[in-house]
Automatic annotation (TrEMBL):
SUPFAM superfamilies: Activating enzymes of the ubiquitin-like proteins
Low complexity bias spans: 329-360
One example GO MF annotation: ubiquitin-like modifier activating enzyme activity
Name of the protein this chain belongs to: Thiamine biosynthesis protein ThiF
UniProt region (Disordered), positions on chain: 329-391
Taxonomic source organism: Georgenia yuyongxinii
InterPro entries, per the entry: ThiF_NAD_FAD-bd (IPR000594), Ubiquitin-activating_enz (IPR035985)
Amino acid sequence: MHLRPGLSVLWRGPGESQVGVDPRCAVVLDGLTPGDQRVVEHLTRGPTPADLQRVGRAVGVEPERVRELVARLKAAGVLDTRPTRSSWSLAVPDTEESYWSRLRDDGDGAAVLAVRASKRVAVVGLDRVGSFLATFLAMGGVGTLLLDDVSAVTEADLGVFQARDVGGRRATRAVTHLRAAFPRLRTSAPAGTRPDLVVTVSTAVADPLRLRHLRRAAIAHLPVVVGEVAVVVGPLVVPGRGPCTRCLDLHRVDADPAWPALAAQLLTSAPTGTPATLAQLGAALAAHQVLAALDDRTVTVTGATLEVTALDPVPLVRQWAPHPACGCDAPSAPATDPAAATTTPDQAAATTAATTDPAAVGPTSADGEEDGDGEPARADALAPAGSGGRA
Ligand SMILES: [Zn+2]
């Protein structure tokens, strides 16, 4: 038997010991004899029940009292009584497993890792943000990562990429680094494989064609847009539920009728590069939300976006309502944005658009096309919009 991984036994004073520190997983035991405290401390060594009884005898604690102490710790949820812990056998995912073992009611961090190992996530766009994001997902134990980006590594991408990668193909180089660090990571899948989730990382504006293909293929997707100042994560689009990315586009058109023209020009804009801390913050937020979705935990970017800049590490949360003109089958309901008062006028305009529920049908989105136009869904939603590459 052993304590949940990562928990320490701390001596608080005579008769009082504490297991763990964080109130979310710690417990204080009082009324202990010095011998009791020695028995509890021995649990950090992962003893068998017989070992623990031997320690008890050596310090004058009766067998029944040893069993009572074990029962108290078990009831407090700090004891892991499973006979063996499975492991990915890699240091980083094992760290992940330990963390969730401390937090979950059942202490079964291995179950979290088992689910993640069975998942396929595609990351399309491997600039500095995208390459950090892919790395975080591998560290988190995602079993299959399908990386897609045919463009060349530039000096602005360095971080996961190294100087010798400059000029090489982003996806190829990223796969090389990830497989070296995570030998059990799968980076390919049979043709026609549907990913469980696709993350698109793009500069200035999300590629509407790619997003439309994902919507039509009914594949869950999470857009990440690297802007001039901010990285915007979300919303997570789950088939049949809104708002979708087209809803956000329509809200933006409501706030600025020139948006389709601007967006079309931004599609071909050159990447400006992302400062190191912003790239990591944006990538970590996106990876956090992907893992939350895979784990079936609460996903903040369901119907919302997270927006972070290098100025402030605390992201701005914007809630978005489904747009009545979208037709993504989402119930149309007003949303609230308590953070709107802190936004810029332009942002406030977009937020205001999101919080209203106009009766009038809005103009078309930047992609200029309804979803239900009868065009068949692409079989391969990973390689639309002229991008033929997949590692
Ligand atoms: Zn929609």
